[in-house]
Amino acid sequence: GLRMEGSFGTANVYRSSMNALMAYQGKEDLSFNEVSPEWLKGFEVYLRSRGCSWNTVSTYLRTFRAVYNRAVHLRYAKNVPYLFRSVYTGTRADHKRALGEEDMKKMFTVLPSDSGIPSAVIHAQELFILMFVLRGMPFVDLAYLRKSDLRDNVITYRRRKTGRSLTVTLTAEAIVLIKKYMNKNPSSPYLFPFLRSHEGTREAYREYQLALRNYNRQLVLLGEILGLGERVSSYAARHTWATTAYYCEIHPGVISEAMGHSSISVTETYLKPFKNKKIDEANRKVLDFVNYTIVGIIN
């Protein structure tokens, strides 16, 4: 059903979750009556033993929970209160995806054209900057932008993930980069030349995946050339914009709206790794302000 709707990414998640369930079960058939809190805990332990991250574990369990709830609604399974309570279905921000201050300076450094750096790497850098100035637009939304989404230096589009409508007023920097990389094919509906097939087809999804893999490869090379401290991926621009906005004292609710998150709790996940650092910085400022008093007490 998801594939028929054109939701190929979500369909792949469901397929991966099903494969993991079958591997744990040791057979292709699973009765809903066999599912218990103990069975689910065993599945969680099994996934962790295979080296799955907590976020991957959560994805598989949330996918299975959605299927189980649908089965309950259709009366194929009985409603068991708190069935999934003992397993992890949250989201962790263990890995910092945002660039630090020094890495940001390097990323925004203009690379000379005669430096010998491959043009594909320079293109990746400039696309990263474009995604950043477009309020951390994800690569998937950038790839699927249509020419009709751009009117009078304003881009209006729907997030592929949440369906939320967003409007971005282009800055001078964004206009320059869009004009440089926009699709020159007059018959193509897409704003950028990542896709050729009709939207919603499996071919278009494969073209997007290929473009994303290539982009991430170029970002890794770029990170090595610039000597970045963190491995860079396509999502780094999005996380970097969010955390930069947070350090500029912009309220998480505004950041959530700007990024088209489904809820502010998603934004809080983005910002979680940086909150303690910001709190420590605030404490240092307080202590510096009253330092003369503290020094007097200590002495």
Tell me the strand order in the biggest sheet. Answer: 1-2-3
Strand count, sense and closure of the main sheet? 3 strands, antiparallel
What is the mean pLDDT?
Answer: 87
Strand percentage, roughly? under 5%
CATH superfamily of the largest domain: Intergrase catalytic core
Counted by DSSP, the helix tally is: 13
Low-confidence stretches: none
What is the rounded Rg?
A: 23 Å
- Domain count: the total is 2
Task: Give the class-level CATH name of the largest domain.
Answer: Mainly Alpha
CATH architecture of the largest domain: Orthogonal Bundle
Q: What's the SSE pattern?
A: HHHHHHHEEEHHHHHH
N-to-C span: 73 Å
- Helicity level: 55-70%
The shape, in one word, is globular
Which fold name corresponds to the CATH topology of the largest domain?
A: hpI Integrase, Chain A
Which class best fits the helix and strand makeup? mainly alpha
Topology, number of strands: 3
